[in-house]
């Protein structure tokens, strides 16, 4: 079937919903999606599988497509000698994890596009990432690689089978983790926590922040751990490490100073030059950290980052129906970063001479540029706080002067050819983003942020659930794929955060239902959680969820949300499932604690003390709002909060049971383990009950 553009014929990817797969639907390679048709063909014809995994915003995926997958000769060879399968890693993280583990075992590194060769029974025998079309500098070219693999398949099949058996055995060992070995009498606790802090301290980059050298990825789990450590210990060093990293990321070019939001990572140690793709999950994971940093320090930078990043997501990554899209491409017009860079002349064209030169001076836009002859706006030379001191004004006053200039540049940039948008809605990432909007609203009080979280929650509850089961992805009316642990854990947490923002009992009840299914379908009988459900497609391995990666560990987030739900609902089933996990994973965590930030956060919550706050008073009453503000402006990482109108039924949260207004005034109750202090209607008294100030 022709696509109407040059007479090319569609391959088997036509009709898929993934934008990434559809990008390849008219390649001359006869791609299949992962599924029975391709796998049966491989078995019937005894052809090896060429598995290529990537995602829509991936720059090097585009490069390999142009160089190799659009090449007629390469395509003809693949079509004759292999069964070629294309996978979107964001739709199928189960496959991505299995075969990424294989590639990392084989090569010592990983990345995308991922290139793996499999036997018909799905055992890997060779893999890598990007391959250039022709060999150079000791690296084999893709065309030659295909010929060598096929020759080995034809002439040395026994060697391939032995190799595939060895890699598969190692993958199955990885899949089981170490949950079933070691001392399981003690849960993850202070020992592992302290070692994680020590590991981060030893790897910290004091000049630029972050941990280790280039490339630098946003270390969200590590920053969260350090903020919690500061809260526990009251020591300055953990907060200083967290702040140095947050400030450097926000001042570098990895942060979009014109449009808001973060790129996926920095290619250098200074956070200056990003890999320009902008992923929803980065925004979702970083916003809560900047919210918490603002709660602790009240520094204007952190508030600006939160507001601008949430505005970016609402403006550029939000579906008309309320869900959040997945990413923006790194490339536009086939050039990485072209959409985001500036020259002084372009800035002056938009802002005029005086304002243009001022903006260029502040944000480091120069004639020589800092990226291929053009400039990525950044504040690494001098922060706005330092610049404001020089100008004799406050940082907020300087930011106010710059804001209309930013908006004019944003409007001008919007007229450029935009990077492509991956408009699929991923349940797990939407759960993370609901949390970000809900926590932003809780702290900064912008109604638009609450509306965005509510709309996304309604989208998820209407379109991403079938019966009691979640789906992974939604696009153009189609919800697909049996969900993974991350979908359940992240969406349950997002709904719980939304409940604690607006106190709609539907969201607490939905979070509890999702968590119940999560326990039933994903929990390992001996503690911990599998990444796939008990009725998932049978794959080479069934992996346990454990350490953090680009996303926090599903097992860690599951444990945290179960513990928080247990406080709200006095639910022993949820509490015990979480505690089984904290027991089961300790042998694994103790080997490298800093890789398990999500599990450590759950253990920190369980360790307590948890502040249980119930506020009884009409939501529209300014006195109720003032009591809520006292709670929300503080950094309280171990908090469960509920609010109910005076005289209304308490709802499902046990925190509201037997709580009444005192003397007819909105009243706050502060409790630990359901034992409450004297209730108060006085915001200052509530401050004292919650403890000393964080800063």
Question: Could you describe the 3D structure shown?
Answer:
With 695 residues, this protein is of the alpha+beta class. It folds into 3 domains: 19-176, Glutaredoxin (3-Layer(aba) Sandwich), CATH 3.40.30.10; 190-339 and 420-607, Glycosyltransferase (Alpha/alpha barrel), CATH 1.50.10; 611-690, Glutaredoxin (3-Layer(aba) Sandwich). A hairpin with a 2-residue loop joins β18 and β19. The longest helix is centred in the first third of the chain and has 20 residues, at 157-176. The chain is globular and about 85 Å long. Residues 1-5 have low confidence and may be disordered.
Give the helices and strands, then pairings:
Layout (H helix, E strand, L loop, with lengths): L18 H5 L8 E2 L2 H10 L3 E6 L4 H11 L2 H10 L1 E6 L4 H15 L6 E5 L5 E5 L13 H14 L1 H20 L13 H14 L16 H14 L2 H16 L13 E2 L7 E2 L2 E2 H18 L2 H17 L8 E4 L2 E2 L2 E2 L7 H8 L1 H11 L20 H8 L3 H19 L7 E6 H18 L2 H17 L1 E2 L2 E7 L2 E5 L2 H18 L2 H18 L31 H16 L2 H13 L1 H4 L7 H11 L3 E6 L5 H11 L6 E6 L22 E6 L2 E2 L6 H8 L5
Parallel strand pairs: 1-3, 2-3, 16-17
Antiparallel strand pairs: 2-4, 4-5, 6-7, 8-9, 9-12, 10-11, 12-14, 13-14, 14-15, 16-18, 18-19
Helix pairs in contact: 4-6, 5-7, 9-10, 9-11, 9-24, 11-12, 11-17, 12-17, 13-14, 15-16, 17-18, 17-19, 18-19, 19-20, 19-21, 20-21, 21-22, 21-24, 25-26
Describe, in short, the structure shown.
With 695 residues, the protein is an alpha+beta fold. The protein folds into three domains: 19-176, Glutaredoxin (3-Layer(aba) Sandwich); 190-339 and 420-607, Glycosyltransferase (Alpha/alpha barrel); 611-690, Glutaredoxin.
């Amino acid at each position: 079937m022709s696509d109407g553009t040059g007479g090319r014929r569609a391959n088997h990817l036509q009709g898929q919903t993934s934008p990434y797969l559809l990008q390849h639907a008219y390649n001359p390679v006869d791609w299949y999606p992962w599924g029975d048709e391709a796998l049966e063909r491989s078995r019937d014809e005894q052809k090896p599988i060429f598995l290529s995994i990537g995602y829509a915003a991936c720059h090097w995926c585009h490069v390999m497509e142009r160089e190799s997958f659009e090449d007629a000769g390469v395509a003809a060879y693949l079509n004759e000698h292999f069964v070629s399968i294309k996978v979107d890693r964001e739709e199928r993280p189960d496959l991505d994890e299995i075969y990424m583990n294989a590639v990392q075992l084989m090569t010592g590194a990983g990345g995308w596009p991922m290139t793996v060769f499999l036997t018909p029974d799905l055992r890997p025998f060779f893999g890598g990432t990007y391959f250039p079309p022709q060999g150079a500098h000791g690296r084999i070219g893709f065309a030659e690689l295909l010929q060598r693999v096929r020759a080995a398949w034809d002439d040395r099949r026994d060697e391939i089978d032995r190799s595939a058996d060895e890699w598969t055995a190692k993958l199955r060992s990885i899949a089981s983790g170490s949950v079933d070995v070691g001392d399981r009498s003690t849960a993850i606790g202070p020992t592992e926590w302290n070692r994680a802090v020590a590991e981060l301290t030893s790897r910290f980059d004091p000049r630029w922040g972050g941990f280790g050298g280039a490339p630098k990825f946003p270390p969200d789990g590590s920053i969260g751990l350090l903020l919690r450590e500061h809260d526990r210990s009251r020591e300055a060093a953990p907060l200083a490490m967290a702040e140095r990293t947050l400030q450097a990321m926000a001042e570098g070019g990895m942060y979009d100073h014109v449009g808001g939001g973060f790129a996926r990572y920095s290619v250098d140690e200074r956070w200056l030059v990003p890999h320009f793709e902008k992923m929803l999950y980065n925004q979702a994971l970083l916003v809560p950290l900047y919210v918490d940093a603002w709660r602790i320090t009240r520094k204007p930078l952190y508030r600006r980052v939160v507001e601008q990043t949430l505005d970016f997501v609402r403006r550029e990554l939000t579906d008309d129906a309320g869900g959040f899209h997945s990413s923006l491409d790194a490339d536009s017009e086939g050039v990485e970063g072209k959409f985001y860079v500036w020259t002084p002349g372009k800035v002056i064209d938009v802002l005029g001479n005086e304002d243009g030169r001022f903006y260029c001076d502040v944000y480091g836009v120069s004639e020589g540029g800092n990226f291929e002859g053009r400039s990525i706006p950044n504040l690494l030379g001098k922060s706005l706080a330092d610049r404001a001191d020089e100008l004799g004004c406050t940082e907020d006053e300087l930011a106010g002067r710059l804001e209309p200039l930013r908006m004019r540049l944003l409007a001008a940039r919007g007229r450029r050819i935009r990077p492509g948008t991956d408009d699929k809605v991923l349940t797990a990432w939407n759960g993370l983003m609901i949390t970000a909007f809900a926590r932003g609203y809780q702290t900064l009080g912008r109604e638009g942020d609450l509306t965005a979280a509510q709309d996304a929650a309604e989208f998820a509850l209407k379109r991403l659930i079938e019966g009691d089961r979640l789906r992974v992805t939604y696009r153009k009316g189609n919800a697909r794929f049996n969900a993974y642990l991350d979908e359940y854990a992240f969406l349950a947490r997002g709904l719980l955060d939304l409940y604690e923002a607006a106190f709609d009992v539907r969201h607490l009840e939905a979070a509890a239902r999702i968590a119940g299914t999560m326990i039933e379908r994903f929990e390992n009988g001996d503690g911990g959680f599998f990444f796939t459900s008990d009725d998932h497609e049978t794959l080479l391995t069934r992996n346990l969820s454990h350490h953090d990666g680009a996303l926090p560990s599903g097992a860690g987030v599951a444990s945290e949300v179960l513990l928080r739900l247990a406080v709200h609902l006095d639910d022993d089933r949820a509490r015990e499932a979480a505690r089984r996990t904290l027991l089961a994973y300790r042998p694994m965590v103790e080997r490298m604690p800093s890789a398990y930030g999500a599990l450590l956060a759950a253990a920190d919550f369980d360790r307590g003390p948890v502040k249980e706050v119930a506020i009884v008073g009409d939501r529209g009453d300014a006195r109720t709002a003032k009591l809520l503000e006292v709670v929300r402006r503080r950094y309280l990482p171990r908090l469960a909060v509920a609010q109910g109108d005076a005289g209304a039924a308490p709802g499902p949260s046990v925190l509201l049971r037997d709580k009444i207004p005192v003397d007819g005034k909105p009243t706050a109750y502060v409790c630990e383990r359901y034992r409450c202090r004297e209730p108060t209607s006085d915001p200052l008294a509530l401050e004292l009950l919650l403890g000393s100030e964080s800063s």
